UniProtKB/TrEMBL annotation:
Residues 217-300, 301-384, 387-470, 473-556, 558-641, 644-727, 730-813, 816-897 form the PKD domain. It comes from Methanosarcina horonobensis HB-1 = JCM 15518. SMART domains: CASH (SM00722), PbH1 (SM00710), PKD (SM00089). This is Cell surface protein. The lineage of its organism: Archaea, Methanobacteriati, Methanobacteriota, Stenosarchaea group, Methanomicrobia. Pfam families: NosD, PKD_4. It comes from the Archaea. InterPro entries: Carb-bd_sugar_hydrolysis-dom, Ig-like_fold, NosD_dom, Para_beta_helix_rpt-2, PbH1, Pectin_lyas_fold, Pectin_lyase_fold/virulence, PKD/Chitinase_dom. PANTHER family: PROTEIN TOLB, PROTEIN TOLB HOMOLOG.
Length: 897
C-alpha cells in the first residue's frame, strides 16, 4: 500500500496488487491537497484508491479492477476531479461519502457486484456526467444540489455519440435504462429522463444511449377542422414521428402539396380522403384517413334562445343566451320594449311592469331565420321599499381636533348615502370618519336612498367639540436628499407632533423659512446644520441636526460616448443608436442628418433614401451640455428591392357554370404576398389560386402584389364570363400514376374529363368504387385490373374504360441492410463489449463472429475478450429475401491489463 500525507504530489505509473484487507488500499491519500494520481493499475486490493479529507486532487486514467471492497473512495473530500478511470469487477465501483463539490466524468464503471456508484445523503453539489455505468445497481441518496447531467453540448460522448449530456445507465444483462431507452431523433440521448436513481430526489435528464441511425418516420397528421360548410379552409398539421424531412399530401380533391403544414381550401361539397407520405433518408411511411374531411353546403341557421330569469319584479335584469345551430355570424334581438341588440348573448334590464315578446333573427352566409317568443318575459311592479334613515357614532363630544366615526344603521337596503356634518362638509361614504377642527355644536344630517325613494334623519347639536388642550409641540423633521453635489435641491418635511401652527427653519447657510415643508437649494459645498422651531398657543420647541446636509463639489458636464449599428446598408436602413456617455446625463438630443431628430437615449431610426449622413448628439446634465458630431457616419445605398408590377393570367376566361378557373400570378419584381378579388365577393391570398364561379355573369378580377418596397394592383374588367349550365354531355377521360408495381400498390387517379362534369363514378376492377373526382386507391392483390370512369352533368353522362390498365405483381422482399456497433471499442483485458444490431429489412436471424473464434446468434449479444489484441467483427443478418454480411476490421482493441 502507498500512503501519502503531503500536498502537490504526483503518483503515476505504479502497479499496486494484493493489499487485500478491508482497511488496505492500493493508493491512500489523507489530508492532501492538489495531488495527481494517474495512469496507475490497482488490482486485488481491499480498496483501489482511497482519498480522505483531501481537496483539489485529480484522479484520472487509472485502471482499478478486482478490488474486494471499493474501486475509488472519497471520504470527507471536496473539489476533486475523478475522470477517465476504468473501475470494473470490484465489489463497489465509485463511493462518494460525505464529500462535496467533486466532478466525476468520463469514467468506465462496469461489472461491479454490489453497485457501480454510491453517493451518500451527506454529499452535496457533486457533478456526475458522461460516465458509463454498466452494473447491477446504483445507490444515490438525497444530498443537496447534486447533478447528473450538464446542458446538452455537441461533442463525442463516452459511448461515441455526438452529444454530451448525462450518463449511460446500463446493466450487464442488457436490460438497463440506457440499453432499452427510445431515441427517436438519433441524437444519442434518450427521449425520456432516467428517474430510477435509487432512493434519490434526483434524475438524469439527458441519459445517454448507444448511437444509432434515425429510423424511417411514422406518418401521422391532424387538422384544425374536419368538417364545415364550403368554402372550407383546413390547416393540416404534420404529426409524424421520427424526424421526417419531406412531405407529400394528397387532399382527395385532385390537389397536392409538399409543405409540412399546408392550408387547403375545399370548394365543393363532399367527403374527402386525405393522404400524407412522410419520408427521410431511412425511408417513408404513408398515413391515409378515409373520408377525413366532410364539406357541406351551408344551411340557414335554426334559431333558438332562452333567457333567465323570465319573470320578476322591475327592474328585472335578464341574461339572454343564443342556442342557434348552423354557425350564425350575426344576431338581431328585439326585447319587446322598443330596444334592440346585436350581441350574441346580450343582457337587458326591463324597468317597467308588463309582458314582453322577444324576437331573435340569426344570420349566416346562407341566409337568416327568426324565432319569436310571445309574452316571454313577465315583469311585475317593484317590491322595493323606501329605506328608513338612521345612524350612530363612536363619540359625540371631545376636544378639537375631534375624529368621529359615523355608522349607518338605516333599514330598507339603501344604495346611496349623503352626509352633512354641520361644518360645511359632506360625504357619500356609507360609514365615514370626519375630523372636527373647531370648537362648537354640530347638527348632523343623513339622507339614504334606493330605487324606491329616499328618507332623511337629522340630529341637532349631535356633536359637541371643545377647545384644544394646550400642549407645546415637539419639533421633528426629515430631508431628502441629505447629500449630493452643488447645486443641491433639498426638500424638508415637518414631522412635529402637538399641532404646531408656526414654523421657523434655519438652513445653516444664512437663509431661513417659515413654510411648513420648504424646499431649499444649497449652492456651495460644505456641511450644514439645520434647525426647526415649531410653535402653537402653548409654546414652542426646537430640533437641531448638526452637519445634517453634506454638499459636494459642482457636477461636471457629461463626456459623450455614442455609436450606431449598422453603419451602412441598402435603403430602407434601420440603425440602432446607443449612448453610453459618462457624467449622468439627463437629456439627449440626436440629429440624424436627414432632418429628423430624437430625444430618446437609445433611439432607432430608419433612413429611407441613399446618401451619407452626419450624426450629432447633444447630452445634458445639471452642469451643462456637450455636443459630439460624426461626419458621414451612416452610409445608405439605393434600395435593392423594387416594388412589384402586378400581372396575372388564367387557364380559361369563359365557360359554363360551375366554372373552375386556375389563376396564375405573372407579376414581376419578386412579390412576397398576393391578394386576389374574384369579383363575386370572394378573395384569396394564395399565389396561384383555383376558384369556382357558381353563378352566371361577367366578373372583374383584381390582383394586388406586395413586397417590402410596396404594392401594385392589376385589374381586368369583365375578365371572366360564366354562362348557364352546359347543355353538352361531358367526355370522360382519366389518367393514373403509377400503373404498375408490387402489391400493395397505391394508385392516384386523375380525372381529365371535358364538358364540366359534376359527378364521377369510378370502378377500380377489384370490386371497389369511388365517387370522388380524383381518388386514390390501393390494390392489395397481384393481377391486371380494368378501370372504368363515368362522368356526368345535367346534360347526361359518358363512360371511358381502360382494359388491364393497372398491373400489380407480388410483393418483392429486399435483403436486410446492416447497421451495427459495439461499445466500448477499446480497453484492458478482460474487456466486456455490448454489441447492438439495428439493421433494416426485418431480419429474422443473426450470426456474429467476434474475431477470437467465438460466435453468437443473438440479435444484441454481450462478449468478453480475455486476451489483448485487435479483433475483426463480422455480422450476417438474414430475412426471407436472403442474407447480408458486414465486416468491421480491427474494430475492437484490447490492451494488456
Amino acid at each position: 500500500m502507498l500512503a501519502v500525507q503531503a500536498d502537490n504530489v504526483k503518483i503515476s505509473g505504479i502497479k499496486a496488487i494484493g493489499a487485500s484487507g478491508s482497511s488496505y488500499s492500493g493508493i491512500y491519500l489523507s489530508g492532501c491537497n492538489n495531488c495527481v494520481i494517474e495512469n496507475n493499475k490497482l488490482m486485488s486490493n481491499g480498496r483501489g484508491i482511497y482519498l480522505v479529507s483531501s481537496k483539489g486532487c485529480t484522479v484520472s486514467k487509472n485502471t482499478i479492477t478486482g478490488n474486494g471492497y471499493y474501486g475509488i473512495v472519497l471520504g470527507s473530500c471536496s473539489g476533486n476531479t475523478i475522470s477517465g478511470n476504468t473501475a470494473s469487477d470490484d465489489a463497489r465501483g465509485i463511493h462518494v461519502g460525505s464529500s462535496d463539490d467533486n466532478i466525476l466524468s468520463g469514467n468506465m464503471v462496469t461489472s461491479n457486484s454490489a453497485y457501480g456508484i454510491y453517493v451518500c445523503g451527506l454529499s452535496d453539489r457533486n457533478l456526475v456526467y458522461n460516465n458509463y455505468f454498466n452494473n447491477t445497481d446504483v445507490t444515490i441518496k438525497s444530498g443537496i444540489g447534486n447533478s447528473y447531467n450538464i446542458t446538452k453540448t455537441a461533442g463525442k460522448n463516452i459511448v461515441s455519440g455526438t452529444y454530451i449530456g448525462g450518463n449511460y445507465w446500463g446493466k450487464p444483462d442488457g436490460t438497463g435504462f440506457s440499453d432499452t431507452a427510445v431515441d427517436r431523433d438519433g441524437d444519442g440521448i434518450s427521449d425520456s429522463a432516467y428517474t430510477s436513481i435509487t432512493s434519490s430526489i434526483y434524475s438524469d435528464y439527458l441519459p445517454l444511449v448507444n448511437p444509432s441511425n434515425p429510423a424511417a418516420p411514422d406518418a401521422d397528421f391532424s387538422s384544425n377542422v374536419t368538417s364545415g360548410n364550403l368554402p372550407l379552409n383546413v390547416l393540416f398539421t404534420d404529426a409524424s414521428t421520427g424526424t421526417a424531412t419531406a412531405w407529400n399530401w394528397s387532399f382527395g380533391d385532385g390537389t397536392y402539396s409538399t409543405l409540412k403544414n399546408p392550408v387547403h381550401t375545399y370548394s365543393a361539397a363532399g367527403n374527402y380522403t386525405v393522404k400524407l407520405t412522410a419520408s427521410n433518408a431511412a425511408g417513408n411511411d404513408t398515413k391515409i384517413k378515409e373520408n377525413y374531411i366532410k364539406v357541406t353546403t351551408p344551411q340557414t341557421p335554426a334559431v333558438n334562445f332562452w333567457g333567465s330569469p323570465v319573470s320578476g319584479n322591475a327592474p328585472l335584469n335578464v341574461t339572454f343566451k343564443d342556442n342557434t345551430t348552423g354557425s350564425p355570424t350575426a344576431w338581431n334581438w328585439s326585447f319587446g320594449d322598443g330596444t334592440y341588440s346585436t350581441d350574441q348573448n346580450p343582457k337587458h334590464t326591463y324597468s317597467a311592469a308588463g309582458n314582453y315578446t322577444v324576437k331573435l333573427t340569426a344570420t349566416n352566409a346562407a341566409g337568416s331565420n327568426t324565432v319569436t317568443k310571445s309574452n316571454y318575459i313577465k315583469v311585475t311592479g317593484s317590491s322595493l321599499q323606501t329605506p328608513i334613515a338612521s345612524f350612530s357614532s363612536n363619540i359625540t363630544s371631545g376636544s378639537a381636533p375631534l375624529n368621529v366615526l359615523f355608522t349607518d344603521t338605516s333599514t330598507g337596503t339603501p344604495i346611496a348615502w349623503n352626509w352633512n356634518f354641520g361644518d360645511g362638509t359632506n360625504s357619500a361614504v356609507q360609514n365615514p370618519v370626519h375630523a372636527y377642527s373647531t370648537a362648537g355644536n354640530y347638527t348632523v344630517v343623513l339622507t339614504v336612498s334606493n330605487a324606491a325613494g329616499n328618507t332623511t334623519v337629522t340630529k341637532s347639536n349631535y356633536i359637541t367639540v371643545t377647545g384644544t388642550v394646550a400642549q407645546k409641540p415637539v419639533a421633528a423633521f426629515s430631508a431628502s436628499p441629505t447629500s449630493g453635489n452643488a447645486p443641491l435641491n433639498v426638500t424638508f418635511t415637518d414631522s412635529s407632533t402637538g399641532s404646531p401652527v408656526a414654523w421657523n427653519w434655519n438652513f445653516g447657510d444664512g437663509t431661513s423659512s417659515t413654510e411648513k415643508n420648504p424646499a431649499h437649494t444649497y449652492s456651495t459645498a460644505g456641511n450644514y446644520t439645520v434647525t426647526l422651531t415649531v410653535t402653537n398657543a402653548a409654546g414652542s420647541n426646537t430640533a437641531t441636526k448638526s452637519s445634517y446636509i453634506s454638499v459636494g463639489t459642482t457636477a461636471q458636464k457629461p463626456v459623450i460616448n455614442c455609436w450606431g449599428s449598422p453603419r451602412s446598408g441598402n435603403a430602407p436602413l434601420t440603425v440602432t443608436f446607443k449612448d453610453d456617455s459618462s457624467g449622468s446625463p439627463t437629456a439627449w438630443n440626436w440629429s440624424f442628418g436627414d432632418g429628423t431628430t430624437s430625444t430618446l437615449q437609445n433611439p432607432k431610426h430608419t433612413y429611407s433614401a441613399a446618401g451619407s449622413y452626419t450624426i450629432k448628439l447633444t447630452v445634458t446634465n445639471a452642469a451643462g451640455n456637450t455636443t459630439a458630431t460624426k461626419n458621414n457616419y451612416i452610409t445608405v445605398t439605393g434600395t435593392s428591392v423594387q416594388m412589384p408590377i402586378a400581372g396575372f393570367s388564367s387557364n380559361v376566361t369563359s365557360g359554363n357554370l360551375p366554372l373552375s378557373v386556375s389563376f396564375t400570378d405573372t407579376s414581376t419584381g419578386t412579390p412576397t404576398a398576393w391578394n386576389w378579388s374574384f369579383g363575386d365577393g370572394t378573395y384569396s391570398t394564395v399565389k396561384n389560386p383555383v376558384h369556382i364561379y357558381s353563378t352566371a355573369g361577367s366578373y372583374t378580377v383584381t390582383l394586388t402584389a406586395t413586397n417590402a418596397a410596396g404594392s401594385n394592383t392589376a385589374t381586368k374588367s369583365n375578365y371572366i364570363t360564366v354562362a348557364g349550365t352546359s347543355s353538352q354531355k361531358p367526355v370522360a377521360s382519366f389518367s393514373a400514376s403509377p400503373t404498375s408495381g408490387n402489391a400493395p400498390l397505391g394508385v392516384s387517379f386523375t380525372d381529365s374529363s371535358t364538358g364540366s362534369p359534376t359527378a364521377w363514378s369510378w370502378n377500380f376492377g377489384d370490386g371497389t368504387s369511388s365517387t370522388q373526382k380524383s381518388p386514390t386507391h390501393t390494390y392489395s392483390t397481384a393481377g391486371n385490373y380494368t378501370v372504368t370512369l363515368t362522368a356526368s352533368n345535367t346534360a347526361g353522362s359518358n363512360t371511358v374504360t381502360k382494359t388491364n390498365y393497372i398491373t400489380v405483381t407480388g410483393t418483392t422482399a429486399q435483403k436486410p441492410v446492416i447497421n451495427c456497433w459495439g461499445s466500448p471499442r477499446s480497453g484492458t483485458a478482460p474487456l466486456t463489449v455490448y454489441f447492438k444490431d439495428s439493421s433494416s429489412g426485418s431480419p429474422t436471424s443473426w450470426n456474429w463472429s467476434f474475431g477470437d473464434g467465438t460466435t453468437s446468434t443473438l440479435q444484441n449479444p454481450k462478449h468478453t475478450y480475455s486476451a489483448a489484441g485487435s479483433y475483426t467483427i463480422k455480422l450476417t443478418v438474414t430475412n426471407a429475401a436472403g442474407s447480408t454480411t458486414a465486416t468491421k476490421n480491427n474494430y475492437i482493441v484490447v490492451s494488456k491489463a
